[in-house]
Design brief:
This protein is mainly β. It folds into 2 domains: about 140 residues, outer membrane lipoprotein receptor (LolB), chain A (Clam); about 100 residues, no CATH class. The chain has 2 helices and 16 strands. It has a 16-stranded mixed β-sheet with strand order 7-8-9-10-11-12-13-14-15-1-2-3-4-5-6-16. The termini are far apart.
Length: about 250
């Protein structure tokens, strides 16, 4: 769940498969003690997200389309969009539910080890094997049987990540499940944060940290989002950013 917020304003390297089709709009608000809140308006449709924010005072529209492997960064004052096409997966940083940690990733091997209870909730344990040269890197992951989100991970490098369910809670009149997340590093350091997982949207809509920082989706409206919002705005000039992958694919 944590990954969603970090990617709200930037790209992520982790891809999580598209599994649900609810569309909505919301304001993503980043709060830091002693600083003004940073707000991004977004529109979401399965595999696509549109973000509207200010970049050095200029209104900017960012569109990520994982279905077409394309993204646009559009500068309103300049009426200009920069297009980036890639053969790699584009993570729009909002979808959480998965059915197997090996979904859409042929480089991993996964073994279902069966169901067990974690914090009085059923979860399915997976063994995950990644190859690094001749070396096998083995991790384990537990998926909540109902919500299909990772509730525990033990990574090959000694890091462990675990979510403890604290019960159901209303957040801005939305039904959520509240969790505490604990990350234990190989050094023994433990980092904690609280997560609120929206039952309808199947994503985390709030995260708060011990240092007072918080990240939250507010003013959520579940609605049909027009396809035109995920295309280059009318009247904008398009410039294509060429990458090594796209160039190689055309040869």
């Amino acid at each position: 769940m944590k990954a969603f917020f970090f990617s709200l304003l930037c790209y992520l390297t982790l891809h999580i498969g598209t599994v649900q089709a609810i569309q909505f709009s919301a304001n993503a608000v980043l709060s830091t003690p002693g600083r003004a809140d940073v707000s991004t308006h977004l529109y979401y449709s399965s595999g696509r997200i549109r973000k509207e924010f200010f970049y050095y005072g200029e209104p900017v529209i960012q569109i990520l389309d994982a279905n077409k492997h394309v993204s646009w960064m559009c500068f309103t004052d300049q009426q200009l969009c920069y297009e980036n096409q890639s053969l790699e997966e584009i993570n729009i940083g909002i979808e959480n539910a998965i059915h197997s940690p090996c979904e859409d990733n042929a480089t991993l091997k996964c073994e279902n080890l069966g169901q067990q209870n974690l914090n009085n909730r059923p979860a399915v344990q997976w063994k995950i094997i990644a190859n690094e040269g001749d070396k096998e890197l083995v991790s384990h992951l537990w998926l909540d049987a109902e919500l299909k989100i990772p509730v525990k991970q033990t990574l090959f490098n000694g890091t462990s990540i675990e979510l403890e369910w604290l019960g159901s809670e209303k957040l801005d009149n939305r039904d959520t499940e509240k969790w505490i997340q604990r990350i234990k590093l190989p050094s023994g350091e433990v980092q904690e944060s609280y997560q609120w997982f929206d039952k309808e949207l199947k994503i985390s809509i709030r995260e708060s940290f011990t240092n007072g920082n918080s990240q939250e989706l507010k003013h959520i409206v579940v609605e049909n989002i027009p396809d035109k919002l995920f295309t280059i705005p009318v009247g904008f000039e398009k410039k294509t950013i060429k990458t090594e992958q796209t160039s190689a694919s055309k040869k």
